[in-house]
Each structure stands twice: as structure tokens, then as C-alpha cells.
Design a protein that fits this description.
CATH superfamily of the largest domain: Probable tRNA modification gtpase trme, domain 1
Number of helices: 8
Helix content: 10-25%
Radius of gyration: 22 Å
Order of helices and strands: EHEEHEEHEEEHEEHEEEHEHHEEEEEE
Oligomer: single chain
CATH class of the largest domain: Alpha Beta
Mean pLDDT: 95
Distance between the termini: 43 Å
């Protein structure tokens, strides 16, 4: 069927983003995935080409399916300070903060980015829909919580030449943005909000706009980026970059406490290395009492970075205390061979007794070689989970690559 021909919704249940008509013709391998009710590109050409564009040039990634909530009203600040573990009063207008929120047992519900648009208006961006929890938490507050995902189109412009692309597009002023800062600009005739944020751990920006302006902004950036190696990328290449940066992925490195079924599968911030986001000095917030108990007792497991011998990614591997594989310590949540770091890296949940930096563990890797499975025990070392952190990601203004 011609992609331009409309079909009944039950035959095409996934939504299309405002960038679909531009992205679809560029997708050469027909690899799409579902994200938050939208059809999005997983790979345009090859994962390798797209990954190296992130690290060596500039890339465009369709962020529109990111779930967005408008939180506004006289009690918006008090509401968010009760919901989120960080002290929201410290977040200034025009700034963005990474944040998490927990249930009453102190287990992580989700993480996201919080934009302070004005004194009484915020935008909360999450990977998963959370409207039921957000609405329930709003009881007693004079605040409006509404999903605005379809009202805001978004693009992630990431990579070392991303600032040069902005300059070529007439957005020179955006290069003065500091990390986690917001600015308002004109992209051609389209108003856009640009934030110095991203999911690659590299220099990058995110552009937020009216869906009616989406194609015009896409065209402007693609034209401006021709001499800077700009190319669209899918989720698969982005996943490699986020793992190198040590960023967590929901439903991969943790499950939302609202979606777990088995006891013990939810995780608290201490276990995930997110305890730096807990502000116990700001007053009460959801899960505080339970988290104070964890702080006193210490977590039983921790999320760590692993540097694994060899070059075979340890996807879904079990982790043991020794090569004999007698005492199980945990499991790998994300793994990849890092082309930039030239290391076999992974994120893993392990017993707290083996989570100290420099600890040695053993990883059980299974390889399929021409339909024949092989088992290998590979030595691994616990390392800082931020595997790649170039100075350019924080430079202001960025260097002219």
C-alpha cells in the first residue's frame, strides 16, 4: 500500500509523528519500532553509520513520542516538590533538571527531564505514560496536569558538529546556551524552544516546536547540515550512545514500580546509583520514609558499569563471583561493544558486596556461531558507569568542529 494513502485506524493503529513524511523516504531498511503509541524509525541505513555520525558529525532524532506533561497553576511548585525527589525550588526559570519520582515504598516509578518554563508552569518529559500517578499525586493541589505529547513536536540534534549546524541554520544565539539551559529562537519563520540537553552524552541540543512547523524546521536543519555530516538516526544507534554515556533506559535497566508484578523486581534510587537525586533536606516527598531506611541500612544490590574482557557483548548475561559459576551475583541489563571506547562495556545489577570500583566478577556469555552455541566465562571489572564523557559536551560556546 502506498504510504501516502490513508487507512482505517484499526489497520494502522500507531500514530505518525509530524516528521514522518520527511523521515519515511530516508529509511532504506524498513526497520520501525513502536514508541509510546507512535511508529518511529529504528534504523535508517545501518546502525554503524548512524552511530559514528553521533560521535563524529551531527544527527537528527525524532523525539516527538517522548511523553510530555504540562504542569501549571498556583501550586505547581509545591506539587512537584512533593512528587519529585529533587528540590524543585532550586530549578530556575529557563532551566532543565534530570529527575526521578518514587512510590511510597521508595521504588522508582520513572525518570525524566523537568523544564521550568515560568514561575508557575513546567513541562515534564518521560519515556512512559504516567498520567494516572501524576493525577493521583495532584489531589489537594491547585494545579493542572495534562498530557501535551501531540501538541509538541521535538527533534534531538546531537554530535560534535551540532552547534555548527545551528549556526548554519541562522540560530547562532543558541550556541550560547549552557548545559541544561533553555532558549527561545526563530528557526526561519518558526518559533522554537531549544534546550542544551540530550541522551547521547555528547554535545547536543533538543528543539521543541509546534507540529505545524515540524517539516519546515526539519528541512532547514537538513539543508544547513549538509556540509557538517548531518544525518537522521534511529533508536538503535542512540541506544549505543546512551549506554556509553551511562544513561539508564526504562524497561531495560529498570522497570517502573507501577508495572512490576513479582516482588523484588522494583528498584530504589540507591540500587540504581541515583541517590544523588535525593534531597532529604527539602521536606517530605513520595517515598521519603522508605528511602531513609534504605540509606541507613544500605542497598543489597547496585547498578554498576562493567569493563568485560573480549569483544563479545554480554547481552542478558548472568554474573558470578568466580569462573566456576557457583555463586551468582546478578545480571547484565545493557551491553555493547563500544566503537569509541574500544571496550566491551555493560551496565549490570550486582550484589552490593561486589559493587565497589575495581571489583572483579565473571560474566557468562553465550555466542551463536553458525547456529552452534558456545559458552564463555569472561572476566570483568567494576568501573565508573560513565564510559564516555567528552569535554565538548559542556563547552560553552562549543568549539567550531
Amino acid at each position: 500500500m502506498d504510504d501516502s494513502v490513508s487507512a482505517p485506524h484499526f489497520l494502522k493503529p500507531l500514530l505518525r509523528t509530524p516528521f514522518h513524511r520527511r523521515a519515511r523516504p530516508l529509511c532504506q531498511v524498513e526497520e520501525f519500532i513502536a514508541w509510546a503509541g507512535y511508529s518511529t524509525v529504528d534504523v535508517f541505513t545501518t546502525m554503524e553509520q548512524e552511530y559514528f555520525a553521533i560521535r563524529n558529525a551531527a544527527t537528527l532524532y525524532d523525539l516527538t513520542p517522548m511523553v510530555k506533561y504540562r504542569i501549571a497553576g498556583p501550586d505547581a511548585l509545591d506539587y512537584l516538590n512533593r512528587l519529585i525527589t529533587r528540590d524543585v525550588t532550586k530549578l530556575k526559570v529557563g532551566r532543565v533538571a534530570y529527575c526521578i519520582w518514587c512510590d511510597d515504598a521508595g521504588l522508582l516509578i520513572d525518570d525524566g527531564t523537568l523544564f521550568r518554563l515560568s514561575e508557575r508552569e513546567f513541562r515534564l518529559c518521560t519515556a512512559m505514560r504516567q498520567i494516572d500517578w501524576l493525577a493521583a499525586a495532584a489531589i489537594g493541589f491547585d494545579v493542572v496536569v495534562e498530557e501535551v505529547t501531540e501538541q509538541v513536536a521535538a527533534l534531538a540534534l546531537q554530535g560534535p558538529t551540532s552547534a555548527s549546524v545551528l549556526r548554519a541554520a541562522g540560530l547562532d544565539a543558541a550556541m550560547r546556551l549552557k548545559p541544561f539551559e533553555i532558549g527561545h529562537f526563530e528557526a526561519g519563520a518558526a518559533p522554537v524552544m531549544i534546550s542544551r540537553t540530550g541522551y547521547t552524552g555528547d554535545l547536543g541540543y533538543e528543539l521543541w516546536m509546534n507540529p505545524a512547523d515540524a517539516e519546515a524546521v526539519w528541512d532547514l536543519l537538513m539543508t544547513a547540515g549538509r556540509t557538517w555530516g548531518l544525518r537522521p538516526i534511529g533508536s538503535r544507534a542512540l541506544n549505543v550512545a546512551r549506554l556509553e554515556a551511562g544513561f539508564l533506559s526504562p524497561n531495560v535497566d529498570f522497570l517502573s514500580a507501577l508495572h512490576t508484578i513479582r516482588v523484588g523486581t522494583g528498584r530504589n534510587p540507591f540500587e540504581l546509583g541515583l541517590d544523588w537525586l535525593l534531597d532529604f533536606g527539602k521536606g517530605h516527598f513520595n517515598g521519603r520514609r522508605a528511602l531513609e531506611q534504605v540509606r541507613r541500612a544500605g542497598p543489597s544490590v547496585r547498578l554498576v558499569g562493567l569493563d568485560i574482557d573480549g569483544n563479545k557483548p554480554a547481552h542478558d548475561a548472568l554474573i558470578y563471583a568466580g569462573a566456576s559459576a557457583r555463586r551468582r551475583l546478578g545480571a547484565v541489563t545493557s551491553a555493547v561493544w563500544s566503537p569509541t571506547c574500544k571496550r566491551n562495556i555493560a551496565l549490570a545489577i550486582v550484589d552490593a558486596s561486589h559493587a565497589a570500583l575495581g571489583s572483579t566478577v565473571w560474566v557468562e556469555i553465550y555466542l551463536n556461531r553458525e547456529l552452534v552455541w558456545e559458552r564463555r566465562m569472561a572476566r570483568a571489572r567494576v568501573v565508573d558507569r560513565v564510559f564516555f564523557a567528552p569535554e565538548r559536551r559542556r563547552a560553552t560556546p562549543p568549539a567550531d568542529f
